[in-house]
UniProtKB/TrEMBL annotation:
Organism: Chitinophaga costaii
Domain of life: Bacteria
InterPro entries: DinB-like, DinB/YfiT-like
Protein name as annotated: DinB superfamily protein
Signal peptide from the UniProt entry: none
Domain DinB-like: 48-162
Length: 171
């Protein structure tokens, strides 16, 4: 399924990451997002470096992407299974500060992220159209599962854009 069923969402009623995605089928997008992880290899020499004081290191950014994707996997599962619980937001700064990414190797973080991405692809492959269009609420958003899928790939693209713009000049 592509993004067409999300056209009814009004700006400001969904995570901005969806706007970073193209209108291609989600299953193809997940395959592409796994392939896009190869781009991260460029940043290996900067694994424990940040582009400015009080900014995350490359390791922090990659682990943040993995953590966030896990959280979105859970949200998608809850919505797809028709659970009506309202899920809370999460504090990305708390997660990043507690993760200790810079005490880990670049390879271990990259491998973890690859596994998370493969799990995302596997999870979403189990959702039929009815599940993909089922909505529920997290934080301030009421979204269908499909929108969560596009948020996942858009979030990754957002951070790949930041790595390219702010970290690549340090190479």
């Amino acid at each position: 399924m592509n993004k067409d069923p999300l056209q009814h969402l009004l700006p400001g009623t969904y995570p901005v990451y969806i706007d970073l995605t193209a209108n291609i089928p989600l299953d193809i997008y997940f395959k592409q997002s796994i392939a896009d992880l190869a781009q991260l290899e460029t940043f290996r020499p900067l694994a424990n470096k940040a582009y400015a004081a009080d900014k995350w290191t490359v390791n922090d950014v990659i682990l943040h992407m993995a953590d966030t994707e896990r959280i979105f996997q859970y949200r998608a599962l809850v919505f797809a299974r028709n659970d009506k619980i309202v899920l809370p937001a999460f504090d990305q700064e708390e997660y990043a500060g507690s993760a200790k990414a810079n005490q880990r190797s670049f390879d271990s973080i990259l491998q973890e992220f690859l596994l998370v991405k493969q799990n995302t692809q596997s999870l979403f492959s189990t959702f039929d159209d009815e599940a993909l269009l089922r909505s529920s609420k997290f934080s301030k958003y009421v979204l269908p599962v499909l929108a969560i899928g596009y948020t996942i790939v858009g979030h990754q693209q957002h951070h790949l854009n930041i790595l390219e713009a702010r970290y690549k000049p340090l190479l």
